[in-house]
From TrEMBL:
GO BP: phosphorelay signal transduction system
Keywords: Phosphoprotein, Repeat, TPR repeat
Annotated source species: Desulfobaculum xiamenense
Residue windows of the TPR repeats: 181-214, 269-302
Protein name: Tetratricopeptide (TPR) repeat protein
All copies of domain Response regulatory, residue ranges: 22-139
Cleaved signal peptide residues: none
Residues bearing the modification 4-aspartylphosphate: D72
Any single Pfam family the record assigns to this protein: TPR_11
Length: 370
């Protein structure tokens, strides 16, 4: 089977056939329900489900498969972002396209929708052309990993047929791009920082689809090795599948925190540093380290970020990396009381490096993690 990496594929196509078996529309406004239903009927879906209440929609959708959900900001009993968060907790709806169609154009409203897990954001009143463009994007996003999904299904069939060695080869091929999910989460955060919200939505949804794919591949490997009678490898790959799910939870938490920082701490000179501090205080040291490294891409000579990274490495028990980052902090600014104290505590000696005195206007204003 020919394998084409995620990163080398185009997301959008120009000749995309749009077809839906069943769609759902949720809005607390009767005129919005009517308008959205008329618009969706132009795509000739087999069935259109409409709901004014989020609770009613969730009760019905729990037993239904739909191709796309159109969600308004305000429902009869809850807001749209809350509805999307609950919907995303239903396994079959983890990657279903959910388009927010709304009159809300404030930055924080868009950020809330992205945080909840929407696949698109359309402002009312909309033209059919605008609506259609977002529908095409949502469908193409659904098809984003379709080659790997087919490969995964083929490998699962091989396991069912007892062809374990070929199945293992297929699963391992899928897992060759292990860092793709984190890469797309990072891209999503970068787009948020630059207020390119549409691209952020696409990146976060790509990350979700890749993460689910990898978890299924590890689970498949576990089943294949169980079929071969190798219980140790079975346990190992089941653990890896669990770790992939845990990584997704950490990335989702980091995304939510990052969005809150962008919403409420608009003067933060380096939001990745603030994210690192929050993650570290929550006990997510690997996540904090990753955030601090992203922060250094924005401000490489920021003594506070180097200091915070040193503290995170210290909490992880990596004395060598903690020392390296601490020295970098003091080389940026040797008149740094917390770093000088930490140097004495960590190494048992005072700092004797070259003195660096920054003008007050150049001293970092980012957060020091204590």
């Amino acid at each position: 089977m020919t394998y084409q990496p995620f990163s080398s594929r185009r997301l959008w196509g120009t000749n995309v056939g749009i077809s839906f078996k069943q769609v759902a529309i949720v809005s607390g406004m009767e005129d919005h329900l009517r308008r959205d239903k008329l618009t969706m009927q132009k795509f000739r879906p087999g069935r259109v489900l409409t709901f004014s209440s989020g609770e009613e929609a969730l009760a019905v959708l729990g037993g239904e498969d739909v191709d796309i959900v159109i969600c308004d900001t305000r429902l009869a009993d809850m807001d749209g972002t809350h509805f999307i968060r609950i919907l995303r907790q239903i396994p079959r709806f983890r990657t279903t396209p959910v388009m927010m169609v709304t009159t809300e154009n404030a930055k924080n409203a868009v950020l809330d929708a992205i945080s909840s897990g929407c696949t698109g954001y359309v402002l009312r009143p909309y033209s059919f052309e605008t609506f259609q463009r977002h529908i095409v994007m949502a469908q193409q996003l659904q098809r984003f990993s379709e080659i790997e999904v087919e490969q995964l299904k083929a490998a699962q069939d091989m396991v069912a047929q007892g062809d374990f060695d070929d199945a293992i080869e297929e699963f391992e091929e899928i897992l060759t791009l292990q860092d793709e999910a984190q890469k797309y989460y990072d891209m999503g955060c970068d787009y948020l920082f630059r207020q390119k919200f549409g691209k952020a939505i696409v990146s976060f949804n790509k990350a979700l689809k890749i993460n689910d794919l990898f978890a299924e591949a590890y689970h498949g490997l576990a089943q294949a090795y169980m079929g071969k009678g190798d219980s140790e490898k079975y346990k190992n790959y089941m653990q890896k599948a669990a770790e992939v799910h845990a990584q997704f939870d950490r990335m989702e938490e980091a995304k939510t925190l990052f969005i809150e920082i962008l919403k409420h701490d608009v003067r933060a000179p380096n939001p990745y540093n603030t994210l690192g501090v929050r993650l570290r205080r929550n006990g997510d040291y690997p996540g904090a380290v990753h955030a601090y490294k992203r922060a250094l891409e924005l401000t490489p000579d920021d003594e506070n970020v180097h200091y915070n990274l040193a503290k995170a490495f210290h909490y992880m028990g990596d004395r060598e990396k903690a020392t390296t980052e601490l020295i970098d902090a003091l080389q940026c600014n040797s008149d740094f009381p917390e770093a000088l104290k930490f140097h004495q505590e960590l190494l048992g000696t005072p700092w004797r490096g070259v003195a660096v005195r920054r003008p007050a206007s150049e001293v970092s204003q980012t957060i020091k993690d204590v």
